[in-house]
């Protein structure tokens, strides 16, 4: 999973957890706030009643001494005020929830009860507010609070997403620059537009590392050039000397046989060196890809070159490649070597009287070239190993050195060709090359 996705998921998860906690705590918190607000409202009403009593006297509530009590409910019975004379006994002032019967209906109120003394008389003042009204207010507050919280979470998620994108943009630039590197020589070191010290340090480290890699590849190229001269030249000299010795009539037949075997060994050594040098030069991109290759002409040249070997093994080669199939940005000689090695193996490990089919077809915007044979096939457990250098899946034949398919894979990678192999023991093998056009 990408770092950006992990950061966004972590941010979203923490916000969801916080939201869930708030949703659980919010009702209790808002209820307490609503009750506290109601208590403050009741105390405020109490002060208003006392102001009226102080200014107008108790008669504004109990105008007639014969009245036993005063009571006033608003229209919807949401609030009430009551006052009545009581015996001069000790009453604790309190605020509590209680039930009242109003016009035959039981209503639950939050009531402030307060005893006070005036002109030698003791009165009980009660101010109440309906708990249904309080709950309705609390539910409204909870609903809008939840809307607000959800809005904040969504908004912060988008802000986090935008911030993370901006924050990680230098890392994306570094990754894109690395993904474009087809070869170390193609890397161009440079600064990264960021004021985040970690990304600047990462970019500087990559620049330094790639500089070391480029230097190592430069030395390897020099080494390859030296090897090609220092190894191939002595081998060629030895071959010439052995040929001269073989032309000497005084050389006994027993020695002559040994000289022939030595010639074969030197020829094999020379082929191995040339194959390894070819792989190294391709991997170091010492070949150009500036040709437009006609697949039909390429396949026909391979068949013409290898037809004699096929006839010796009584193997029939058939081709079906349209004339207009063109591969741009390619190297003709390397593609020739790639197809030649596959067809050569198809002949070498085929049955006498067997066949090889080379065909091409379009796959959307790509071209697929397949080489199928009726040979001995390759075991499934051996398929992943066939491109390993010096690995032979068949018994040694004295000719192959286990580098042919390694060269095929190297050339395919060099041309960005998708290479697939399928095989079945006793039935044959199928190589598929998918070219971008």
UniProtKB/TrEMBL annotation:
Signal peptide: none annotated. It catalyses: ATP + protein L-histidine = ADP + protein N-phospho-L-histidine. The chain crosses the membrane at residues 7-30, 144-168. SMART domains: HATPase_c, HisKA. Keywords: Kinase, Membrane, Phosphoprotein, Transferase, Transmembrane, Transmembrane helix. It is found in: Membrane. It is an enzyme of class 2 (transferase). One of its GO terms (molecular function) is kinase activity. Residues 226-437 form the Histidine kinase domain. SUPFAM superfamilies: ATPase domain of HSP90 chaperone/DNA topoisomerase II/histidine kinase, Homodimeric domain of signal transducing histidine kinase. Its main location: membrane. This is histidine kinase.
